Amino acid sequence: MRDALVAAAFQLFLERGYEQTTVDDIVALAGVGRRSFFRYFPSKEDVVFPDHERCLADMTAFLSVGGDEHEPVQRVCDAARLVLRMYAENPTFSVQRYRLTKQVPGLRGYELSVVWRYERALAEYLRGRFAGEADGTLRADVVAAAVVAAHNNALRSWLRSDGEGDAGAPMDHALGYVRAAFGGPPAARAAEGPEDVVVVVSRRGTPLWRVVQEIETTLGRG
Fold first, then answer.
1. φ/ψ (deg, to 5) at 183
2. Cα gap 49→197, rounded to integer Å
3. Of 41, 70, 91, 201, whose Cβ has the fewest other Cβ atoms within 10 Å?
4. Each residue of 192-217: pLDDT tens digit?
5. What is the percent of the chain where pLDDT is above 90?
6. Same domain, 146 and 102
């Protein structure tokens, strides 16, 4: 019945438009009563995003079983792929929802609230993993936001292509930026940070070749 309600809703959204479709219209087409609709969906907006509650629960469960043997940034990147899998399971529906959400401001606001809940789930996991570190909470929030931004960039690119091709490749590419920037312990990233800066003081008018020579000597290349 849940699937029948979603199918009826999107058929009407495509035929009449979202704003012009009522819950009564949806239940009439699906052949059920209003009580049945609200048993599954608290509002008309929820029927547009029928799978996010399940996906959020799956993500939370996935993160909860991630122990110390899992590198935390890699773990949240893997968790984000669960959301991609949800979209990729039904490309046609996902593309229809993407187009509908772009057209209806209210749905865009609803979608942002859903995305925020994903981000909070990632941040909560990371806060636990980074507890005790200097700026651990800040790092957790920044990494969570970066994962969501990278995920959304790749996902929307795939949706704009009408769901054609492999969604996994652009997602791996986008999340690779997050892992490169934030993966590994802070101390290791600091050790791989900027190279030493050499400052050479010379008198005004010193020939350029002499300045270069001084730099090379300082760097041990002379």
1. -70, 150
2. 52
3. 201
4. 444 455 565 666 666 655 655 666 66
5. 66
6. yes
